[in-house]
Each structure stands twice: as structure tokens, then as C-alpha cells.
Amino acid sequence: MSNNTDRSAYNFAINYWLGCSAEKAGDFTVSEACYLSAYKDEKDHQDRMFGFLGLISIYIQTNNRPKLDELIINLEIKAGLISEMGNINGGPIHLSQHATDSIHFEQLSDLYKVFNKVTLDRGNDHLNGKIWLVRGFMAVNLSKYNDQYKAVVNARKYINSYQYDFLDDLHIQALRDLLFNSGESIADVTKFYNTLVKDLDTYDVGGFLVKYGENVINMLFEHALYDKVVNFSAYLNLEKLEESNFLFKIAYSYAHIKNYTKAQQLYNQYLREHGDNSAVLNNLGILMANDSKHEEAIQLYKRGLLIAPEDVNLSKNLKLAVQKKEDEEERINKEKNLRQEHLASTNYLKSENDWVLDKLLHFVAEVKKDEGFEDGEVPLAKYKFQKYLNVDKQRAESLISQWLNKGYLKDTGYRHDYNVVIYSVNPFIEDEIKRVQKRKIPKGWIDGFVQISVDTLDVCEYFSMIDKIAKANKKFRDLLERDFNELTYNYLVGHEKATIVLSGSLVELALIYYC
């Protein structure tokens, strides 16, 4: 409102009141004239909207659509005219030296309802855009912020920022009013968030982020919408966040949705940019501890306690981290010793015969199929030994006793239902059995080696043939002896293919010798 003490500055108010009186009396001609004077008296000021809205009221009541369209299309809308979507409530109005009054637009709510029913003109985008802007002007003065937003967005469908360079600002203002006037429920906050993200992807309203981005982070964080905090942070320049608290909230949100790597990065960024903070050090320590980096966690908790020595959470987490570190070291040592023990026990496999190795491999395979098998351990009643080994009871008990002594199996000391012993299976046993089996000398070779003797060679007439070869001339003697020796050896150890090949080679050499 104008604050000029010159009484002529308030002619618009007098004309507006006169127009209202005439309208109530049903004299629309006088009313129109008064409203028109009020409208023209304040050409470049928001106060002209009193006369403008009065004229709209008259033209709607009289069904004068041509004049209504002409009024709206000729309204010169500038940023100053509807900045912040305008204000048509207030004062004071200095009627005289001792007379002051206030002014407001009467029955705006009723006018808004009927103006919302004004149809758009399919062939006139400019008119339609202005109709929506006027609706937005009314909505914000009635604190109808959802309607205000709707009006601005719809206006943008018909008019653009090249014609009205303040449209982006109006859009940002509408989003701001939605932000600060949205409901407190999760549904309300989610609805606003979805609207905002859609507009950020569609319109040039990045200025909203600069002014109110951190307010959005606060709102989402307070409602524990951590996934949306994370998604919204992608629109922000995290390097330029003025308040360290917002960086903390974004880091916390990343941790909550289990993106621990990003949470660590942001917590470390906080420490670099803003120095040590007990809450940040505590949360970062928790992330380190959860990643089994207990020593790093311990150092972070200690740094936090230097700042806040009475912090209960830091003290509790430090104690827990120290204990976990000790437990981890003990576990690693136990696993190392157990591994060495298991590996040592596999040395016995080299001396086992094939029958025992086959039974052991089959037993382990059956144990792993047992419904109670888990993490290398299984409860086994005695009858299962005989079942899994497929031997009689005496042999089953003998084999299990030997395997326990050699470390293939181990009594864990724990008992299952009905006092059934829980055994652990050497985790290296299967692979080592397969390795041993692959490295064994083929049975045929061993049998062949055993069969080689002077008597066997006599039966094969080996020595008589050697005597005959010795009589050959020197050029062929060594070659014949070489091939005959290899032929005899391969025949005795059962190498059938080699025997056939060497026989051919010896015959060929003999033919060359005699021919």
C-alpha cells in the first residue's frame, strides 16, 4: 500500500469504497465507473488491483465476457505489480489529518470461487496465461498456497519467461510458500518433495535451491525421509553448503540407507572443512567398526572424547571397539592355528590306501548333504557313521576312530539334542584327497614294476635276444638294443600303445638291417 500522506494518493480507496457501495445497491453502471477510476488511479502500483478485482466482479455478475477478457488482456503485468503475488489487504489510508482507515478487498473468497469457473479461450494463450496469473494473485491473498502453485504452473503453459521474465521468481515464491505451509504429515512432506523434484527437472527454478535447499534438507531429515535427503542432495553443491549441520544430515542419511562408502566420504569432508565434531567422529567410528576396521574406529572415538570427555555414546562405543578388536585378533589366531592343524592332518592322506580314501571322500560328501550340516559342523548320531560309510558297524567305528585321531574329523565338544556329538569336518580334506588321488602311481605301473625280474625276463627270452643283438654290426647294434629294451619294459608294465609303436619301430630297424 502507498504511504504517501497526500490525500490524492488515496483516491483509489475512495473510488473503490464507492464502487463497493454501488455494487451492493445493484447499480453496476456506477459501480463500474468507480472501480474503473480506482483501477486507473494506480496504474503502476499494486493498489490498482482493488479496482481491477472490482471490475472483474461486475463483469462476471453481468455476464459481460468481452469486457472481462479485454480487462484481463490489457492488464500490464509487471514484476512489481504482482511481486510476491501481490497484497490487497492493509493500510493505513489517511482520509484527513485526524481520520485514518484500513482497506481490504471485500468478499475476495466469493470472487475467487466464481473467477475459477471462468473458462479459458482455446484460441488465446496470452489471455489464458493472464487468467491463471490473476487466479494465483487471488489464491495467495487467500493463503491458498496449493492453488497459488497450480496457477503459476498453468500460467507457464500459455506464457513464457521471454514475455514475463518474472515467471521463474513467481514459481520459486510458490514453491517457497508450499514449503513453509505444507502439512506436517509424511504424506504432505512427500507430496511437496515430489512436486519440487519434478519442477527442478522441468523448469529453471534452481534459484530455489540457493535460498531454500537447506530448509528442504531439514524438513526431510526431521521426518526421517533419509532416502529423499540423499536423492535431493544430488541437486545441491555439497562443497558450498554454508551450514556444517546439513553436511552431517546428508552423511547420516547415506549411512541410514546403507551407502556406507558415501557416508564415510561426507563425514570425512565435514572433518576437513569444519574440524573435529564429537557426533561426526562417533558416527564415522561406527562405520569403521561395522567394516571391521576396529583400530580406525578406536582412534576416532578417542578423538571424539578429547572434545566431549563425558559423552556416554563415545565411551560405550570405544569400549565395544576395543573388545571387538581383541575378539577379532583372537579369532584370527584361532583360525590360523586351526588351519595349520587341518593342513598338518592332511599329510596322513598320503599313506592311506585307495579304499580308505574312497570311503572318506564318500563320507564327507554324505555329511554335507545332512540336514544338520552348517558352517563345516554337523551333529552325527553313531548309526549315521555306518549309514554314510556303507560298511558294517565294526568297520565304521574303526574308521571314525582313526579319522578322529588323524584330524580328518574333530569332536567340537558341543552337543546337539539327545546329547548327540557335534563334529567339525576338516575343510581341506576333500581337495587334498583329490590331489592325492591324482598324484598316485597308476596301479598298472606298480604291478608292472613288481613283475620285472630275471625269471620274467627269461620267460620273455630277453637275454637270448640280447645275445643275438650283440652279434649285429656296430652301426645297428646300439639302435636294436635301445628299441628292444624299451619294447620289453613297456610290455612288462602294461603300456599297450607304446608296445605296439615300439614293435613297429624294431621290425622296421630289423628289415633295414637284413635288407
From TrEMBL:
This is DUF2597 family protein. TPR repeats lie at residues 278-311. Keywords: Coiled coil, TPR repeat. Residues 315-345 form a coiled coil. Gene3D superfamilies: Tetratricopeptide repeat domain (1.25.40.10). It comes from Pedobacter segetis. InterPro entries: TPR-like_helical_dom_sf, TPR_rpt. It comes from the Bacteria.
